[in-house]
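Section 5.1 Outputs to date
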Amino acid sequence: MSGTANGRGTAPDVTEAATMRRLMRCCELSAQRAQAILRIALAGVLTGAVTAELPADRAASQFSVLGAYVVIAVLVALCLRRPHGRAGTTAMTVVMGLVDVVALVTLQLLSQGSALLVLALFLLPLLAAFNSRPPVTALIIVLDTAAYSIAAAVNSSVHDQLRHSQAIVLLVFLVLVGACSLALSLSHSRRCRQVAQLIVDRSRLLVDVMSAEERERTRLAEFLHDGPLQEVLAARFDLQQSMAHRDLDASAEISGRLLDVARQLRQTTSQLHPQVLHTAGLGEAVRSLVRTTSERSGIPITYTAAYYGPTRHDLLVYCAARELLDNVVRHSSAAQAHVVLVTDSRTLRLTVTDDGVGTDPTRLRQRLGAGHIGLASQRVRIEAAGGRMEHLSTEAGTRIRITLPLPGAGPQVQEKP
């Protein structure tokens, strides 16, 4: 057992961590490509600003700095077009952020206090907002704010063009722009991680679903071999003995055992293909499922239905009910359970409640990682059908509600438990 646990717990974790890093790197590379395009546009804006307020004695030095900045921006853009290589690393993001600040500060110092170049500093926080690493964004914003403060305080030409109150107001504006950019970077980083985690979960689920058929076949083979087959072989042997001794009482007992085998096979067949679902509808199918589960497990399970069907979700709800009841029997240690099936003009709802040990919703991802795909796969199917699966608060045990929209109903709205 330990080897299996390690096999499913260590190697997949390492692989998933590598997948997460690769996905985050792809997200960062995409953001850097957008920054590279905007950086070239910023170089064009700087060219216009320098040309509009060109000091004759410093034209050569300003255009040299501007030309070097344009060359770097173009080379970075071309480098980021490559699918492989070291492009897209965090170091490149930091270096290019520093290049942006240094280029603007240098152009500002070489100018005669150009107000346009001061305003260009307001564009750098917007450029940094594309970063998927908020600490890098914060660093660039701090450096940009410091550069503006130094330019406004030290450069006499800027000081002459802007009154003290105007410089302070612009500084406040720059701080607000930086705060908004940092908030955007945080949101972008969080969204990238959520998308990456979702991709990892779906990939893991896909791998497990691909092997689910084989596991179901193995489980069915073990059930048939250890249950009905052994009963039939034992009944055959006893039947031979009773025929040899002409024991009619033994023959009656054997007949009863064979009827039990037939009942087991009938229940198994019904679970594999619920014929009652097609003949009597979802309400009776769930009622039959509740009855057989209660008889098999010994757990009293009550059933309440206000179902008016059929609906296009009947098979999906039946499979979910079977999985939920199976979890009640196998994992809840419940003394009793209750199933409610309700339809109205807008929704089809199934609620399963037990008084067992309870289930922590945060453990679903851990159970998925351990190979328990039952509830996770049901959740995926339900959400794909436009519905939702909720863990509702209860004093003891577990209460899970499945809600699916009926044709003509509007979008699902999260309800309070």
